[in-house]
Amino acid sequence: MDRDEVLDIFRSCDAILEGHFILTSGRRSPIFLQKVRVFQFPDKTEKLCAGLAERIREAGYGDVDAVISPAIGGIVPGYETARQLGKPALWVEREDGVFRLRRFELPKGARVVVVEDIVTTGLSVRETVEALGKEGIEVAACACIIDRSAGKADVGVPLIALAEYEVPSYSLEELPPELAAIPPVKPGSRGLA
Ligand SMILES: O=P(O)(O)OC[C@H]1O[C@H](OP(=O)(O)OP(=O)(O)O)[C@H](O)[C@@H]1O
Ligand SMILES: O=C(O)c1cc(=O)[nH]c(=O)[nH]1
Ligand SMILES: [Mg+2]
Predict the structure, then answer these.
(1) ipTM > 0.95 (yes/no)
(2) Which of 76, 123, 173, 174 is 20 to 30 Å from the Cα of 44, by its Cα?
């Protein structure tokens, strides 16, 4: 599956939103990939994750013990990618703002792939790797559907992206006036009770 096919699926679901968005990193962007508009369709998700599972296998990480995803956005693609790899699908979720493997147990020394929906700065993946490290779980690699950083994000482990889609984001201090004129919205779940 190539980049255009991935972006066409997002476009066909009206998942590429335009406006003024507060990203999970706190950065601002005129573009937001509302991935759940894609993930609501199992057939489209199956196609994307087949592409991602193939990339994971090609990169030599198909034989890990499990796939683990950061909630909420990573859960659906993580589950479907795990299904295609024939591996268990787990997730970390926030407790008092910090990711934890709250509902599952994996033995110390387990090797996993983290599957994420979108990577922008890599912050959420780094938090996931840190959370798993505290439980003695080794992250062999991370795989995502779309890398908004186009390879620039450093997640501390190899990053496999099904597609790169570089779109601008700004710190509050460098916000362009045309973006500042639009009331911002924050679609993601970080910071929600
Ligand atoms: O690379 P980053 O700068 O961390 O940005 C990408 C993250 O942002 C979104 O999560 P968010 O925390 O907004 O919540 P969600 O998973 O509930 O959508 C997305 O699902 C990624 O996890
Ligand atoms: O950086 C983010 O928070 C982010 C960007 C994006 O396009 N989509 C998303 O779900 N999160
Ligand atoms: Mg997320």
Answers:
(1) yes
(2) 123
